[in-house]
UniProtKB/TrEMBL annotation:
<dbReference type="GO" id="GO:0005829">
    <property type="term" value="C:cytosol"/>
</dbReference>
<dbReference type="InterPro" id="IPR036291">
    <property type="entry name" value="NAD(P)-bd_dom_sf"/>
</dbReference>
<comment type="subunit">
    <text>Homodimer.</text>
</comment>
<dbReference type="Pfam" id="PF16363">
    <property type="entry name" value="GDP_Man_Dehyd"/>
</dbReference>
<dbReference type="GO" id="GO:0006012">
    <property type="term" value="P:galactose metabolic process"/>
</dbReference>
<keyword id="KW-0119">Carbohydrate metabolism</keyword>
<dbReference type="InterPro" id="IPR016040">
    <property type="entry name" value="NAD(P)-bd_dom"/>
</dbReference>
<dbReference type="GO" id="GO:0003978">
    <property type="term" value="F:UDP-glucose 4-epimerase activity"/>
</dbReference>
<comment type="pathway">
    <text>Carbohydrate metabolism; galactose metabolism.</text>
</comment>
<keyword id="KW-0520">NAD</keyword>
<comment type="similarity">
    <text>Belongs to the NAD(P)-dependent epimerase/dehydratase family.</text>
</comment>
<feature type="domain" description="NAD(P)-binding">
    <location>
        <begin position="5"/>
        <end position="325"/>
    </location>
</feature>
<dbReference type="InterPro" id="IPR005886">
    <property type="entry name" value="UDP_G4E"/>
</dbReference>
<protein>
    <recommendedName>
        <fullName>UDP-glucose 4-epimerase</fullName>
        <ecNumber>5.1.3.2</ecNumber>
    </recommendedName>
</protein>
<keyword id="KW-0413">Isomerase</keyword>
Amino acid sequence: MSKILVTGGAGYIGSHAVVELAQAGYEPVIVDDFSNSKESVLAGLRAILGRDVPCHHVDCGDAEALRGVFRQEGNIAGVIHFAAFKAVGESVQKPLAYFHNNVGSLLTLLQVMPEFGVENLVFSSSCTVYGNPDALPVTEATPTKPATSPYGRTKQMCEDIVHDVSGASSNKLRTILLRYFNPIGAHASAKIGELPLGTPNNLVPFITQTAAGIREKLTIFGDDYATPDGTNVRDYIHVVDLAKAHVVAVQRLLDRKAPDTVETFNVGTGHGNTVLEVVQAFEQASGQQLNYSIGPRRPGDVPAIYADATKAETVLGFKTETSLLDSLASAWKWQQTLG
Ligand code: UFG
């Protein structure tokens, strides 16, 4: 069984990846500082997997503590680096915290990995690196645009760092960069899911909290975009599908099928949906009527973006399986367990 270090493994995407890795026969080991996750996630993982997943309460930016994890675990075959701050608005208010945490933890990881002979890395990137694209859908070759937030800049910087480090002959590093589109939903068991702290920034947790009566109504940020119904278009991917992309990426690295440098993949469904379509699909999936109104545009939102998912399908053999309706049904089921 290959041991995979999962930084941010107690987070939303990380926890779902831990489940898929374990069920695919890997031995995931979590590293998380719990700055944006809860210890209760570990109980959810135990409930799904029927056993404990080893977890180190460590900040990835702490080189000595991270070395301690590598030393104690031994024989780590690869790392999936999820750990990062991810709130776009907060990153504008606290840019230093974002650069320090997101860039700093990657640098520390890249420093420590070779000390223990670990050469395989999967890195969590984002479709935010494309900015507002000139043409849709975006392929991996679509040029990146200047980021619209410090958060987006950290993802671009991290991609650049990985390229530079992999390109240096003194380093042995094989990396797969996964550019996520919009992850939504929860594990079918409803034992793990998204746990937003405070008021959610993202659409789906805001919708489910509104339906649960926690929020009064959803405000749709603008309906005057040049899209089919005037609201923004995004590519909403079920979080379990996204988690599975990490399993195939890890497999590819361990099988030595990846080149000795960097490979980049979009991870999305290949389909765009408007905000209004998501609201309607949620109503259908949940049987709830959603209270919403149209508000002004949100600064920084791109009008439309969705993935060309061809490369992930042809090279990784990865294809999403869950419909928007089922994804939203899982989000609603999870919300109901939260009360
Ligand atoms: N939206 C609303 N009302 C809300 C929340 C969101 O109308 O209360 C709309 C947004 O305007 C957008 C869509 O729902 O059109 C999705 O918004 P999210 O905040 O859920 O997701 P984003 O597409 O803005 O952001 C996501 C990730 C970021 C990443 C970004 C890249 O959350 O981490 O994609 O485009 F940087």
